[in-house]
Amino acid sequence: MATDTTITKNVLGVYQPGSAYMVGDGFPVRNLFPSNDLDRAVDPFLMLDYAGPQYFPPTDHPRGVGEHPHRGFETVTIVYEGVLAHRDSTGSGGVIGPGDVQWMTAASGIVHEEFHEKAFATKGGTLHAIQLWVNLPRASKMSAPGYQTILNADIPAVDLDGRGTLRVIAGSYLGQKGPARTFSTIQLYDIQLKAGGCAVVTVPEGDNSSIFVLQGRASANGSREAGEAELIVCERNGSQITIDAQSDSRLLVMSGTPIDEPIARYGPFVMNTREELVQAAQDYQAGKMGHLS
């Protein structure tokens, strides 16, 4: 007779935003990490900025953030409401709206801009999005940069016994594979649960796993309830997470294999050493990361 060896992940804690600020003039964000000093507990994830939901009145000058560089990691932007337009120095670009995801690999260096899409800005509306930074291992930090537009229609959705849905952005769930191409082993799930609904997630043993609550109230593996803009962080040991919704909820599950390498950061650069940060700044100033035409 087979024995179930699945071990439940214990919960390390429930965290509120550690800071709030404006990115450019179009992204009012609340930061969950790194402001809560969770580097080791969320590795390979580096940053979670929660933008909005906030209404922006009509304007002829789209709000956002202009040309700026990145090196050493990937940015993942998930849009729930609103429409964003992106351009970068690889020549890539795109428009993403509700349900869409933008996965940009900065790696050896990229320059990009991100604004409210022109028609959305002209009409006005609510912006609601998340931006994650995902670290790259030392061996991949100087890889070629790249860009993926992942449309809502291309993201598989799994029914959760009629009490919700789970969209697989990265990784896999019950045989459904997410479309995102990743350097690190990552599971990224967009979950909607009705009150009383439950999602059982199994991740690789030793993964760092956390659940961000965008809307509603939910608990995981017996944790205290987490509400809007709160983060449930699990311990590394174990592989199973049972999420229970106390009210209609929207959640983002992030799980990844820890890189466990030194992290050196300075603004838009994340490397392993201070010397590499200095080199990144020099390379950007010398135009080696390109520019937007």
How would you characterize this protein structure?
The protein is built from three helices and 25 strands. With 293 residues, it is mainly β. The protein is globular. The strands form six sheets. Strands 1-21-19-23-17-14-13 form a seven-stranded antiparallel beta sheet, with no helix packed on it. Helices cover 8% and strands 49% of the residues. The mean pLDDT is 95. A hairpin with a 3-residue loop joins strand 2 and strand 3 (27-33). The protein has helices at residues 39-42, 118-123, 274-285; strands at 11-15, 19-23, 27-33, 45-56, 64-70, 73-81, 84-88, 93-96, 101-105, 110-116, 125-135, 146-150, 157-159, 164-170, 172-173, 176-177, 186-193, 198-202, 208-215, 218-220, 230-234, 240-245, 249-256, 264-266, 269-271.
Tally of individual helices = 3
Q: Portion of residues in helices?
A: under 10%
Q: Catalogue the unreliable spans.
A: none
Radius of gyration: 19 Å
User: In angstroms, what separates the terminal alpha carbons?
Assistant: 65 Å
**From N to C, what is the helix and strand string?**
EEEHEEEEEEEHEEEEEEEEEEEEEEEH
Give the strand order of the largest sheet, numbering strands 1, 2, ... along the chain: 1-21-19-23-17-14-13
Biggest pleated-sheet summary: 7 strands, antiparallel
Note the overall shape: globular
What structural category do the secondary elements indicate? mainly beta
The total of beta strands comes to: 25
In round numbers, the mean pLDDT is 95
User: What is the beta-strand fraction?
Assistant: over 45%
